[in-house]
């Protein structure tokens, strides 16, 4: 549990909750809603319990509960009211806030209840694009501000991955277009696969045959497909790897791998912007995001 962040600054609380630090201090002083501790140098810090309570307060406040009324609730009542609202969440912003709360509380029940409530109004595609994508963008910002720790991110990512896999499994007998095979993989040491897993779901949904090879795959592992007589298109997503100064080198390896074959290659992700001005083989196509790629498939 050493990777779990247990102490938070007021700036952390602002980043996570979306409530300005000034407002948090007012709630703290006027209503005694939070009880920060202080370091030996008199700097405020907040516990994980403080964070959870603040997220509960924000959810209630966003649903027309006045702060003065919230302040009179016991901790138990606050949690019960929050759960009831979280389970009934239908609007995207409320769902995202509930997912954030479930992440920091490691609450799988809350996550699943929010997800199933969303399914009453949205398709899985809509949930992913309207709720999961903006939520994951928020998670990325929390990483950048050092507010989030690996345990939280791993917990919520694995829950989202489970939903993608379940929905993909339902489509396994949906394959209609067998003239082309998409082979999906991530570069060596790349483990951020939610986007690629969702792309695999979309391709299967559209009736394509896919081969999902997953995380951290060396290019030389693709030899079997290069020797195939089938129409093959490789797809990868570059989020963290390769390092910035290695991106062009990686694509030169791809060009060499493709050689004179008729195979094609698609790359997407944040690292793609680093190679856009470099002249590459016509067999290689670049897209800034998976959403952009889906528009042309």
UniProtKB/TrEMBL annotation:
One of the Pfam families matching this protein, by short name: MerR_1
Keyword DNA-binding attributed: yes
Domain called HTH merR-type: residue spans: 7-76
Keyword line: DNA-binding, Repressor, Transcription, Transcription regulation
InterPro entries: Cbl-bd_cap, Cobalamin-bd_sf, DNA-bd_dom_put_sf, MerR-type_HTH_dom, MerR_fam, Meth_synthase_dom
Molecular function as annotated in GO: cobalamin binding; DNA binding; DNA-binding transcription factor activity; metal ion binding
Protein name (record): MerR family transcriptional regulator
